[in-house]
Structures are given as structure tokens and as C-alpha cells.
Design brief:
- Helix 13 packs across helix 14.
- The protein contains 14 helices and eight strands.
- The strands form two sheets. A six-stranded parallel sheet has the order 1-8-5-4-2-3, sandwiched between helices. Strands 6-7 form a two-stranded antiparallel ribbon.
- The longest helix has 23 residues.
- It is of the alpha/beta class.
């Protein structure tokens, strides 16, 4: 039996940031902690948020790393408690939003954070008493602002997922204005993250027709807009469409992701800390080829958006798109060594996305995908 839920309140359009004070009041946040990173601060986006908050007394934690860690969660929880915060505002990309979700757990639940990880059976332990969260994305990629999950590197080095419907932000404020001028490389990497979400959701065999429709429409928008957004950071229409694609991919991926993400989560825990969206982009071609045997018709649906047919044609089109938008040619270019693959495969087989791939991968399958993506 399929469970289908779409529950997030979303303020979406240019200028949506102006609603943040009213939304804090509506969801009962009087003293928020803002979770962000120093790049967002340097770009002036924190100043814009503070201006929109007006007299709402907010504290700031700006130490979010590119791949959020359990250590950073502890630091932010300390700031949350020192401020006497009663809620959170996440301002940034998926890292800041995921960090804030982990803070929402850790500030209100006892025990180590790993107790609440999905693969540790922790989802049912996450209660409705999590701190309320408003999410404000500044990239168009992860869609974490409308998703029930967070990905955190825990103290033992594993990159783990935390999932609960209680973690869905109370409000997502999606203001494409905040993505204008995002550097081309980050636009490309985050944009391919959004595309990977849409593709893997659509290919998943789970039953959720609304998710299929949302993901396919999001992919169509991204296909038409990602190169424009990379080429011209001030292209307002392209930025609007990419933010919609990102949001739609995450609204839909409650249906389940797949081998792209089981591998990218495992690779993301390596010491070189490669960017998640870039990993997804490089892994997509080989994963769609692997999945064709299970979902050939759906692979063809996606291939048609790229003006081709079949998994081989789609894989070539995805590689060519990666090249045109300036992404690396393979995993080796990210500083990943092939001798890391055995450990990566072990973690990918344990990942929560492994079992929702349309075709169950073996260790040998993962090895072949990694080698072909190298």
C-alpha cells in the first residue's frame, strides 16, 4: 500500500523573503536561531534576512560546513540553548538546512545523534517535539526545504540519513532572488542535484503517481533552464525555473531515490568531502544504464526530454550536459582514489537509498558503476 503525503507550506516567488517575520509568528517561533554559513554571510544574504525579520530577536550560527557534521550540530545546539531559542531558520543550501534539521532533533531529544539515524532504526524515535524550522534555500539543488530528511556526517565518519515527517520544515520560503549571481560552478552542481532527484524519483518502482508527475515536470523545467542559469547568473526566468525544479524533486522523492544517492552518500563521507551534486552528476550516466533493464519505458521517457532514446543515449546526453556546464569528467578529478571503492561499496549497500533503486545492485554492480564513472 502506498503512503502519499505532501504537507509543506511554501512561499514561492521573487520577494518571498519579506514573509519571514509573519511566518515566524504564524508557526510560533519568537526567538529563532539562524543556521547558515560564512559564505552566505559574506554574500550579504544574512543582512537581507535580518532586515526582513525586523524586530524578531534572532541569534546566528554561521559555522555550517559544506558537508554538515555531528560536531557542527553540537556547536549549533549550544548556540540554540544560549539564545533560549524556540525555533530555527535555515538560510543557505542543503547543508545549512540539513544542519538545522539535525539541531531540531538534538536540541529536543536525548542521547547521541546516531540514535535517530534511519539505518539505526531511529526514525520512529524522532518525535513531534522537534524544534520548529523555517527553511530558506539560497541554491536550487537539494530541495531540503520541503523534504523530511537530513544527511549528516556523524562522528565515526559515516554519512547518515535522518528521516521523519516531523522534520519537514513548517514553512519553506523559496525566493529565487536569493540565487541571483550564484557562481556558475555551484549553479551547475546544485542544478544537477535537482535533476538527479527528479530522475531517480521518476525511475523508482514505488507507487506514487503524483510524485512521478511532479518529478517529471521538475526535470522538464531543469532541462530547459540549467544551461541558461549557469551561463547567466542574472537570468531571472532560469533561476525561477531551477528553484521550482529543485523544490519539485524533493517534494517527490518521498517515493524513494536510488543507486546514484546510495553511492554519492558513501562517497561524500570520504576525507576529500566531494560536493554531493557533482557526485550525482557524474554517477547518473552509469546508473541509468544499469536501471534500464528494470524500467526501460521510464528511461525512454526521460531520454526523450534530452532529444534521444534508450539508456545509452541518455547516458551520453547526461555526460555531454555535464561537460557543457563545466563539471568534472569523472570521480578521479574530484580527488577520489580508486582504492577507496571497497569501503564506499560497503557503505552504499547499507544506505537507505540502496533498496529503493528500481534494480537491486550487488557489490559487483556498484564496483562496475564506480569504475565506469572514474
Amino acid at each position: 500500500m502506498a503512503l502519499i503525503k505532501f504537507i509543506t507550506d511554501i512561499q514561492f516567488d521573487f520577494g518571498a523573503l519579506s514573509s519571514v517575520a509573519a511566518e515566524c509568528s504564524r508557526v510560533g517561533i519568537a526567538r529563532p536561531l539562524i543556521c547558515t554559513d560564512r559564505g552566505i554571510v559574506a554574500a550579504g544574504l544574512l543582512l537581507r534576512l535580518n532586515a526582513a525579520l525586523g524586530e524578531v530577536p534572532a541569534a546566528v550560527y554561521d559555522g555550517t560546513p559544506a558537508n554538515p557534521t555531528e560536531a557542527a550540530v553540537r556547536e549549533a545546539v549550544s548556540a540554540f540553548r544560549q539564545h533560549g531559542a524556540d525555533g530555527l531558520i535555515a538560510l543557505g543550501g542543503g547543508s545549512s538546512i540539513d544542519l538545522a534539521k539535525a539541531v531540531a532533533i538534538a536540541a529536543t531529544h536525548d542521547g547521541p545523534l546516531t540514535r535517530y539515524a534511519t539505518i539505526e532504526g531511529g526514525s520512529p524515535r524522532i518525535g513531534a517535539n522537534v524544534a520548529p524550522l523555517i527553511a530558506i534555500p539560497t541554491t536550487a539543488g537539494t530541495g531540503s526545504e520541503v523534504a523530511r530528511g537530513a544527511i549528516i556526517i556523524v562522528d565515526d565518519g559515516r554519512k547518515l540519513g535522518f528521516h521523519s515527517w516531523h522534520l519537514v520544515p513548517k514553512v519553506a520560503i523559496c525566493d529565487p532572488e536569493l540565487t541571483l549571481g550564484l557562481p556558475p560552478g555551484l549553479t551547475a552542481a546544485t542544478g544537477m542535484d535537482a535533476m538527479a532527484h527528479c530522475i531517480e524519483t521518476y525511475l523508482s518502482k514505488a507507487v506514487n503517481p503524483p510524485a512521478d508527475a511532479i518529478a517529471f515536470d521538475g526535470l522538464r523545467r531543469a532541462c530547459r533552464s540549467i544551461e541558461r542559469a549557469v551561463r547567466d547568473g542574472a537570468d531571472r526566468e532560469a533561476r525561477w525555473q531551477m528553484m521550482s525544479a529543485s523544490m519539485q524533486g524533493a517534494m517527490a522523492f518521498q517515493k524513494g531515490l536510488g543507486a546514484v544517492h546510495s553511492l554519492s552518500h558513501a562517497l561524500g563521507g570520504l576525507p576529500v568531502r566531494p560536493h554531493h551534486g557533482t557526485l550525482n552528476a557524474l554517477l547518473l550516466p552509469e546508473v541509468v544504464k544499469f536501471n534500464e533493464a528494470a524500467v526501460a519505458e521510464k528511461v525512454n521517457d526521460i531520454a526523450a526530454l534530452f532529444g534521444t532514446s534508450g539508456a545509452a543515449g541518455l547516458a551520453d546526453a547526461l555526460r555531454d550536459l555535464n561537460r557543457r556546464i563545466g563539471l568534472p569528467s569523472g570521480l578521479g578529478a574530484l580527488g577520489i582514489a580508486a582504492d577507496a571503492f571497497p569501503g564506499v561499496i560497503v557503505n552504499a549497500l547499507k544506505d537507505h537509498c540502496h533498496t529503493t533503486n528500481p534494480r537491486l545492485a550487488t557489490a559487483d554492480d556498484y564496483r562496475r558503476m564506480l569504475e565506469a564513472s572514474f
